[in-house]
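Exercise 3.2. Students should predict the tertiary structure of the chain below and write it as structure tokens, then compare their answer with the key that follows.

Predict this chain's 3D structure.
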Amino acid sequence: MTASNAQNVVVADTSAPLRKIVHVDMDAFYASVEQRDNPELRGKPVVVAWRGNRSVVCAASYEARRYGVRSAMPAVRAERLCPEAIFIPPDFVRYKAASAAVREIFQRHTDLIEPLSLDEAYLDVTENKMQLPTATRVAKMIREQIREELNLTASAGVAPNKFLAKIASDWKKPNGLFVIQPHEVQSFLLPLPVGRIPGVGQVTESRMKAVGIATVGDLYALELSILESHFGSYGLRLYQLARGIDHNPVVPNRVSKSISAEDTFPEDIPLADTELQIRRLAEKVWKSSHGNARAAKTVVLKLKTKEFSSLTRSLTLPAPPSSCDELTRIALALRERVELGPKQLYRLVGVGFSNFQTAEDPASPLFVEEPVQDQLI
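Answer key:
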């Protein structure tokens, strides 16, 4: 099925509530803060990272990205790709301050703000404090205020739901604004490669291509039962997204689903030598979670081998650990479940809590198939 006949397939449901969602994504945030605060860095390839074999790139300016430098890339590779790059150690105190200033601008327009990280957030502006007529006008004003008051740039996506707004914010980066109107959803979505769907990584994309799915239109053409047979419970989500359906609301002050801490070693070490780090990380995680009203019932141990392969071991308990000592004992016990042999070396270890629960945790909403309304946002 092609995008050209998509609008003959979807019939608008005017009874469905219309959300107006803005996804704001700061452009090369950490690097842009560095360039803003130091005029000598402007127009130059800036890489925010510590130097060293174990360091990874936190952020790269667009001047550095032209050389192929990307976030999460090993710093040594970034240096090979861009020998002229200027490496700046990260300063999260300043980045958090800049993020708080951006958040203050958001709050002038809505209280329904869901931060995803220091540099991006969803905003529900279905009703906005400035009484602007459309979400597009809200997004334009927010970007103007960020640029004029903070001397930073942001890209924004405007759409009827979070899924579409996320895609839209990346469409005209950097310093761009893209709007997906409700009546344009299917014609926009169907030609896209499936890799543009948030959450579809390389592994899932390869599995899709193996069964003949290359575009969102290919997903759209398949029945739910077929998608579920290939992708299990995720098939339902794919069925929804191919139709532009996402009922997830913007959730202010979303509580983290996990708490973790990890260390990268100066040199690769055998598993037997990780006890001290595990004890220290368990103490750090315990302090971070102390006083949390929710109960974490799962303890996770994460390891990364010398060859960059990641593995995890976890244990879900009938009741949360009652002390830091108990958390430490569990993490060390999980280490005993790693069976790669005594000669295997490791570059990273992490300890974490997950599976937080409270009595108030809402159940997942039932799936209801309904297209977005044909109404300008």
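Discussion points: The chain has four domains: 18-27+93-185, 29-91, 194-241, 258-356. Confidence is low (pLDDT under 50) at residues 1-15, 359-375.
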